[in-house]
Amino acid sequence: MQPLDWNDLRHLLAAARAGTLAGAAADLGVDATTVSRRLAALERALGARLLERAGDGRLRPSEAGRRALVHAEEIERAAGRLGGSVAGADRESAGTVRLTAVPLIAERLLVPALPDLFAAHPGLRLELVAEPADLSLTRRQADMALRLARPRGSSRSVVARRIGRLAYGVYAPAAMPAADAEALPWLTFDEAWAHLPPARWIAAALAREGRPAALAANDGATLLEAAAAGLGRTLLPDAVAGRDPRLRRLSGPAGPAGLPVRELWLLVHAELRGLARIAAVAGWLAALLPQDA
Question: Would the pTM count as exceeding 0.85?
Answer without folding.
Answer: no
